[in-house]
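Backbone-to-sequence.
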């Protein structure tokens, strides 16, 4: 059942960007409790990536605008 799975980044794999389209691809691993079930990529448009970045920064307590990470700089 998918609702019981949770995702974590695949720390050994970096996210990738497409300089032409602005697409951001984040490698994720899906787990059921502590058992790895699948590998998937979260694929975001430039706009969705920027929105997620902003929302994560706010959720983590950064209240002032933050610059984009270097890895995302190529997609601007």
């Amino acid at each position: 059942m998918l609702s019981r799975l949770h995702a974590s980044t695949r720390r050994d794999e970096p996210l990738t960007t497409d300089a032409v389209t602005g697409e951001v691809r984040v490698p994720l691993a899906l787990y059921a409790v502590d058992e790895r079930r699948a590998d998937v990529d979260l694929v975001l448009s430039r706009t969705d990536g920027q929105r997620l970045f902003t929302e994560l920064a706010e959720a983590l307590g950064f209240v002032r605008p933050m610059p984009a990470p270097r890895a995302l700089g190529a997609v601007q």
